[in-house]
Amino acid sequence: MTVALGGRPAAPVPVLDVGGTHVTAALVDPATSRAVPSSVIREPLAALAAADSILDAIALAALALPADHSPHWGVAMPGPFDYETGMGRFTGIGKFESLCGVDVGAGLRQRLGARADRLSFLNDADAFALGEYKAGAAAGHERAVCLTLGTGVGSSFLRDGRPVHEGAGVPPHGHVHRLTVRGRPLEETVSRRAVRLHYARHAGLAAPADETALPDVHEIAVRAQQGDTCASAAFRYAFEALGQALAPHIARFEATAVIIGGSMARSWDLIHPAFTRGLSQAAGPAVPVLPARQSAEAPLIGAAHWVQGSVNARS
9 lies in a domain? Predict the structure, then answer.
């Protein structure tokens, strides 16, 4: 059991996982490295709202947690974000634009009052990776590449349980979404939007004025599993490209595992063979490619792990 000074059990660590459509708040038990089930709160978040509205919504979820927790919060945030200072740097990405130049840390501390004396921010993909390292499929791997597949491609390169953002084998800033493949930015080939457009092209569908009229990824996956060759081709095109793009980085980083999570990873029987085929086509290493074990909970576990690491570093 994890104990605090005086022999008392350590207080749970409060965490926030901020996404483009939802914010999740939870308490993580340091003794088990798992979220306390009754504490997990998921609330909608309007990423195009004004800054005060976004901060109010995040704080509302946080304040709904039971109050008996540590005052040091872990906060997983998408980029671009200044994780050291807590300043938003969102621009040109279609979400959280109102937080650009806003001191998110100060805004949340003001709203949380006495319940927060410190916030430790980290990238949401790094939080996912740390969670999988602490309690999931990356456990025991000295070097792991962790991917989240959803609206885009999140990624983290872990060495000895720490995110690596520069150096040999690591993409710019440690995140693969900055890569290109087949002459185009990676997320124009591998993303929720890209898979839908691939399917439309393979199926000979005219691109609608509103792309939301196209079948969503989960529906395309169902069609592929039912024998729709156009749907299968859309997945194959996207995830072979992802394997090809990552192959040299996985090799140079000397990764011993690739861990894949996120909403699209539910279609594992479509993604895994295409991704590994792409790795092979690009002469990549024969590295194990594994599904995440804690896909939903991993960012919460990782944010708490980040807080505990910060506390230990200061001790």
Answer: yes
